[in-house]
Specification:
Blueprint (H helix, E strand, L loop, with lengths): L12 H11 L24 E9 L5 E8 L5 E5 L6 H16 L7 H11 L6 H22 L3 H4 L8 E9 L2 H14 L3 E6 L25 E3 L2 H19 L4 E5 L6 H10 L7 E3 L10 H7 L4 E3 L6 H9 L5 E2 L8 H13 L4 E2 L9 H11 L8 E2 L5 H6 L5 E3 L2 E3 L12 H5 L10 E3 L5 E2 L2
Helix pairs in contact: 2-4, 3-4, 4-11, 6-7, 7-8, 8-9, 10-11, 11-12
Bound molecules: (2S,3R,4R)-2,3,4,5-tetrahydroxy-N-oxo-pentanamide (EZ4) and cobalt (II) ion.
The site of cobalt (II) ion (CO) has 5 residues, from loops.
Length: 446
């Protein structure tokens, strides 16, 4: 459908504004019936008529939210995937959130975000914020389609030609990782994340190059982690990569919240000569104050945040300038309505964005990230993946990669969709992320 056919002609605006005022009540006492107070407006009233929750497993599990409206053919699509806890989010959406949305004005995106976030009383948390993200993406999609504009236009328009992107390279040893980085460079990437297996230890985070995904169906796999082995291995990897690849390629590394503060400080310091673009997630998300220890010891740029679920999780690290990149996952922080506030806060403190962009959040979340990336002033870098064909068939559209940048086109809305018939071909398969233990058998952060 062309964007032009989505709204009424401008000459009808005044007539319709009058009708809208009559059609929709002011906030009523007692039960929540509508959103914010009525105001004159140019488009006819719109209501949410249905909220569909689609769970599908083309290559891995995805939860998709499709919000239908009273305007024939006008709907929005969002992603509400939380890896390993998909059905909890789907149940939250179906049982608790959908009934609250029916009849509401889908254009009141911020009001619905506030209503779902604060109105549940039990606020934040990954399950709730992933559900809200799915709704938020679908609502921005509707708003963009109605306006006939890509979402980045609604966020203030473009500030850059595209979003500088990074891909992943991994291997069993430094030479294999070097080959992986070279492949990334050949593909056009200017930035590559490098992860290496730990010698003598079974399976290491981010290095499962031979496996199709990190979470095969079935019970979780167990990885073994020892900080001493990790701390010895990673600086040698980057020494090798700089010696072989030179200084131009931007290199990144993800510790995946595995270290303690003084271990993290040691790693950040020992990596200084190799000038990383950033060192990601050194510490567990609970320990924000411990980033002070790392900051006091090192000039390696730091990134953190994929496990944060609200603006307030981000405040301490940003306001104290303890990190350089905030990397929330739009899919777990309430999507655009959550992340644009994080970005604005970060702007005030010299912190740039690096939204989490793994394969276990769906194309609508990747699209939302890139729409925000190209609009905000303090964008840093965008993690990205190439989705397999089965996923693209079920969830078509989304960002594209060109010459080191990931970008979105000017399709109205987010530019992604869901094919409900094709989704049915791929039923949900229970799967878990891996877990980790130390050699002595005790639990270790994965
Ligand atoms: O392990 O998304 O930076 N990327 C990452 C990811 C996360 C997964 C967890 O579901 O850390 O690979
Ligand atoms: Co990470």
């Amino acid at each position: 459908m062309s964007s032009r056919s989505l709204g009424p002609g401008r000459r009808n605006f005044l007539k319709m504004a009058g009708a809208a005022a009559l059609a929709r009540p002011l906030i009523a006492g007692g039960t929540e019936t509508s959103g914010t107070a009525e105001r004159p407006r140019g488009l006819p009233p719109l209501k949410i008529t249905d909220v569909r929750v689609i769970v599908t497993c083309p290559d891995r599990n995805y939860v998709v939210v499709k919000i239908l409206t009273s305007e024939p053919g006008l709907y929005g699509v969002g992603d509400a995937t939380l890896n390993g806890r998909e059905l909890a989010v789907a149940a939250d959406l179906k049982e608790h959130i959908a009934p609250l949305l029916i009849g509401r004005d889908p254009e009141q995106v911020e009001d619905i975000y506030q209503f779902l976030y604060r109105g549940s009383y039990w606020r934040s948390g990954p399950i709730q914020m992933t559900a809200i993200a799915g709704v938020d993406e679908a609502l921005w999609d509707i708003k963009g389609k109605r306006a006939g504009m890509p979402v980045y236009q609604l966020l203030g328009g473009r500030t850059r030609i595209g979003a500088l992107a990074y891909t992943h390279a991994s291997g069993r040893d430094a030479v294999e990782v070097e080959d992986g980085v070279r492949r990334g460079i050949e593909r056009g990437f200017k930035c590559v994340r490098a992860q290496v297996a730990l010698p003598g230890l079974a399976s290491t985070y981010g290095t499962s190059a031979t496996k199709k995904s990190e979470e095969p169906a079935g019970m979780p796999e167990t990885e073994i982690f020892e900080p001493s082995v990790y701390l010895r291995t990673v600086p040698k990897l980057f020494e090798h990569l700089r010696a072989k690849l030179g200084d131009e390629v931007e290199l990144l590394h993800d510790t995946h919240e595995k270290l303690g503060p003084i271990e993290g400080a040691r790693l950040a310091r020992e990596l200084e000569p190799y000038h990383l673009f950033f060192l990601e997630d050194l510490l567990r998300p609970e320990h924000k104050e411990s980033f002070r220890v790392i900051r006091q010891h090192s000039t390696t740029p730091l990134a953190m945040g994929e496990l944060f679920n609200s603006l307030w999780d981000c405040v301490p690290l940003i306001a104290e300038q303890l990190i350089d990149y905030i990397r929330c996952d739009l899919g777990h922080i309430g999507a655009i309505s959550g992340a644009r506030k994080v970005a604005a806060l970060a702007e005030a403190f010299h912190v740039k964005t690096a939204w989490h962009g793994p394969g276990d959040v769906g194309p609508p979340t990747h699209a939302a990230s890139v729409h925000l990336d190209v609009a905000i002033p303090n964008f840093g870098v965008q993690e990205m993946v190439f989705f397999p064909d089965e996923t693209r068939e079920v969830l078509p559209g989304g960002p594209f990669f060109r010459d080191g940048y990931v970008d979105v086109d000017d399709t109205p809305g987010l530019g992604t969709d869901v094919d409900e018939e094709k989704a049915k071909k791929y039923p949900y398969k229970r799967a878990y992320l891996p877990t980790a233990r130390r050699k002595d058998g005790s639990v270790q952060d994965w």
